[in-house]
Amino acid sequence: MQHFKTLSSYLDYLELPSPEHPMLSVYNSKGDGYLPCPRESSPPITNDCYSISLKKFLKGDLNYGRTKYDFTNGALIFIEPRQVLQWDNSIIFEQKGFSINFHEDFLKGTELAQKIKKYNYFSYSANEALHLSPKEEKQIESIVENIEIEYQNNQDEFSKEIIISQLDTLLKYANRFYERQFLNRKEQSNDLLERFNLQLSEYFELGHVQEKGIPNIEQIANKMSVSQRYLSDTLKRETGKTTTEHLHLRLINEAKNILLKPNKSISEVAYELGFEYPQYFSRLFKKKEGISPTEYREKYKLN
After folding, report:
1. What is the pLDDT of residue 39?
2. First-to-last CA distance in the chain?
3. Residue 14 near residue 5, CB atoms below 8 Å
4. Alpha carbon distance 255, 259 (integer Å)
5. 169: buried, middle or exposed (CB in 10 Å: 19+, 13-18, 0-12)?
6. Which of 29, 30, 102, 294 is the most buried (most CB within 10 A)?
7. How would you write the pLDDT of the chain (303 residues) with one tens digit per residue?
8. Which ranges does the record mark as transmembrane (predicted)?
9. How many helices (H) and strands (E) does the chain have?
10. How many C-beta atoms lie closer than 10 Å to residue 264's C-beta?
């Protein structure tokens, strides 16, 4: 798989104009303008850059990470360094919107270098893109215009600080708008929770826990065609618990049933549930229930 270490080499591969800054590029179709057209197709590629783009009136399939997404409306998309990208010539662009690309080293020495890692939406798949209301779109576009002004001007010692500040503001607004999207998509959130629980039930009922060990949340997310981060964030907002916490609750409930079978030792219960080390199972059980597996068995075996 081809990997691009510099912003210039990545943009050159995309057949886009060279950037004004070696680690930052800004393209904006404001007014009646259009974005420059990237190459029509690409096999899987990766690069060391962040990308923030608003794509409008885009049709066709784009493979972003592990997910194919049909863009029928505009969406704000966030891509992190080393995310796998792939597309073909079935995509039809009407080049309206904006695209900001910056190398991860552009943030070195700034507070945003660490803060940006906390914005989970950079790890979301394309079908989890942020869909903006017209009002939200205007707010984002005004910030992008400020960034573009600094980008196009003769850059001085203040330029980078101002651009970083505007990027920080853009990401904060995106975080707010994602919260709104989560709230407005309760039905979708409930569906994800039901599908996640269904995947867990199937895993246990088919005996995979004995064969393969504790369920892998990333693999479950893949089967659900969502990113692990998005799934966990959605369940957290809907139930107050992350995917890991839901998994632990399921393991504890399974353990309770097995513990009441007196012919199994605590170690055997742990191995049956896919734990490699019985001590870890005991610690988790006590953390969740307030008593050890042995104490639980003694407490309830006569009931």
Report:
1. 79
2. 60
3. no
4. 6
5. middle
6. 102
7. 899 999 999 999 988 888 989 999 999 887 666 677 777 788 889 999 999 988 764 445 554 444 444 444 467 889 899 988 887 766 555 567 899 999 999 999 999 999 998 888 887 765 567 878 888 888 999 999 999 999 988 777 888 999 999 999 999 999 888 877 766 555 555 677 888 888 888 888 888 888 888 989 988 988 888 888 888 888 887 778 889 998 998 899 889 888 887 788 999 999 989 998 999 999 999 998 899 999 988 887 655
8. none
9. 12, 9
10. 15
Distance of CA 86 to the CA centre of its chain: 17
Tell me how far CA of residue 157 lies from CA of 20, 150, 154, in angstroms.
15, 11, 10
C-alpha angle 179-110-132 in degrees, rounded to nearest 5: 25
CA-wise closest residue to 102 among 162, 38, 52: 52
Helices 228-239 and 186-205: crossing angle in degrees, nearest 10, is: 110
Neighbours of 230 (CB within 10 A): 21
Q: List alpha helices for 129-227, DSSP H.
A: 134-152, 159-184, 186-205, 208-212, 217-223
Q: Between β-strands 42-47 and 85-87, what pairing exists: parallel, antiparallel or unpaired?
A: antiparallel
Encoding tokens for residue 160?
């980078």
Which domains are seen in the chain, by residue range?
Answer: 2-151 (2.60.120), 187-300 (1.10.10.60)
pLDDT at 163: 95
Alpha carbons 144 and 31: distance in angstroms, whole number? 13
Q: What's the pLDDT at 43?
A: 87
Please say whether the beta carbons of 143 and 170 come within 8 A: yes
